[in-house]
Amino acid sequence: MTTLLEFAALGLGLGAVYIGLSTGLLLVYRATGIINFAQGAMAMWGAYVFARVQDDGELVLPIGTIWFPEPPGTAVALLVGLANAVVLGVLAHYLVFRPVRRAPALAQVVVSIGLMVALQALAVIRFGPNSIQVESILPTGSIELLGATVPLRELTMVAIMIVLAAAVWAYLRLTASGRATRAASENERGAVLMGFSPDRLALIALVLASLVSTMAVVMGGSLTGLSPANYTLLVVPALAVVLIARLESIGLAVAGAIGLGIIQSELSLLATRSWWPQWAQSGLDQVLPFLLVMIILFAFGKRLPARGSLQSVRLPDVVVPRFVPWKAALLVGIAVACLVFFTPSYRFGLTTSLIIAILALSYVVITGYLGQISLAQSAFAGAAGFALSKLTTAWDVPFPIAIVVCATLAAALGMLVALPAFRIRGVQLAIVTIAAALAIERFVFDNYSLTPPTGNPIGRPTLFGIDFAIREGRNLARLEFSLMVLAILVLMVLLFVRIARGDTGRAFLAVRANERAAASVGIDVRRTKLIGFGLSAFIAGVAGCLIGYSRGELSAESFSVVVGLSVLAVAYLGGITSFGGALVAGVLGPLGLVYTALHSVFDMGNAYPLITGIGLILTAVLNPSGIAGETRHQVEWVKRKLRSGRAAPPAAADAAPAPVPAEKPRETTGV
């Protein structure tokens, strides 16, 4: 009993961090209607600044550094860190969230993910990828409570965060701006008519959220150290806490945060017991937030409050794809020529681009066509990849049967994750899928009982006596493997075109536009969603198998949540509504052709994720249709100009211009 009490007290520290992050999430949602997936990354930046100023007097800015004559005291360092949090909140409001406040949920999700990816990459560049220790600003003694030794630091942390959460509650309840924020969350038009500015209210909320969250991470960093990956993804359990609070109650958020922190701490204690199953000793603490999210959204998903807004913007148009043989042959011919004549490093980069294009195509299916925001595609790819390791090494399942079996397994997993989509969509579904992805990563991929630390080798793919392995001797990028990947990409694109042009594709677009309207005309919405999730997960599984073959041996880092979000970034940047966008995403993807070319000229280091994060934000704000969509629009504009020029007869300057012929309807479905 004493040990249980001591571990419960240790869990208070984690609960205090959850209080800060969940309070910030709730504030931003009430003011803007946006779930800020970058809340943990924003808080992490201010904490890093505090730690560096406190340690050696170095004020690290995104660009440049300012040195204090000598390291200032803890109070000054804390003020500097919180000041950075304020500046970051202001910049995030004006540059990221304000432009998309009335945009579709997809754009709001991707800008916050873009900010998260960019801030994490910037933290790695400026502070390094490894965890750093943070000196505690709180007393480090202990007290005796019910016979147990309870650390004073954790008790002080949770007390401070409860006070700050109470201050946020008082702001929302007792101040004019707070009451206006609550009113605007119900009816933004009414708040405007009463003389309040939603933009100003959102700015105040973002600044307060940054301050409260940063304070929590500053104190939490003294317990676990600061790491870019860990604190960025702490937003996932904080999202579970926000759902416990039903997106509106500060009190429930505080109680849920403390309870979740204590339960996770107790699970870490139980995992050390001899009777505890070995397969459940790792990652179970991340499964708990996923289960909480699933239960809450299943029970209350349709009754969770939504924020009223003045207007909304349509999702980008979807172009129904057409198969044009000569264009396909030209593209394949160019790809084959490049693979043949490229040097090994560029051939490997192009091969990686082809694989990423397949993974990006899965985003096109589930998000671009079906309108469901899934952040778990990397988990589906990883499940297929690790299954491939087992099938090819333990059971000698031959190629390509192994790919089909593993991709089918990924499809089954995708259909399982799709079950919450029967009741929810949009941002809530994004929360479910990112929680599922993190749970799968920590509980399966990082679990040494399931994926041994010695490595997960993959057998060589052979067919009809031809060896398609990527390596042989000193040749690290064999042409046979690259051509095999190209052939599989062509098959996946043809499969996508066939489905998109058929009844299933039209059902996808109908569900994307309006689920109730789709159901009213006889479309089985649940069946359509299951097919969409299964198909996208199957395509992601194929990509995961090819990633495995290209590596020869798999690790969890190949399929982390951050990797999946990076692929989503380039998929949205390329164009989330067309397979052409997936091809562009492959070229731009991490370790792809553009990365290889830039890395050969410049030392990119960790700058490429920063570039993709910023590019994702700019695309969501300025050009939602992506590079492929904008290119298509420009080509159509040129064609219209050429047609109108040919239609105009040669005449004198004073002659009336000939009418422009009617444009042939595009095969476009506007949603």
From TrEMBL:
Q: Which GO terms describe its molecular function?
A: branched-chain amino acid transmembrane transporter activity
Q: Which domain of life is it from?
A: Bacteria
Q: Which family does it belong to?
A: Belongs to the binding-protein-dependent transport system permease family. LivHM subfamily.
In its UniProt entry, what is this protein called? Answer: Branched-chain amino acid transport system permease protein
Q: How does the entry describe its membrane topology?
A: Multi-pass membrane protein
State a GO cellular component annotated for this protein.
plasma membrane
Q: Where in the cell is it found?
A: Cell membrane
Q: Which Pfam families match?
A: BPD_transp_2
What are the start and end residues of every segment in region (Disordered)? 646-671
* Keywords recorded for this protein, A-Z: Amino-acid transport, Cell membrane, Membrane, Transmembrane, Transmembrane helix, Transport
Any GO BP = amino acid transport
Span-the-membrane segments of this chain are 6-27, 73-97, 109-128, 155-172, 201-223, 229-245, 252-275, 287-304, 324-342, 348-366, 397-419, 426-445, 481-500, 530-550, 608-629
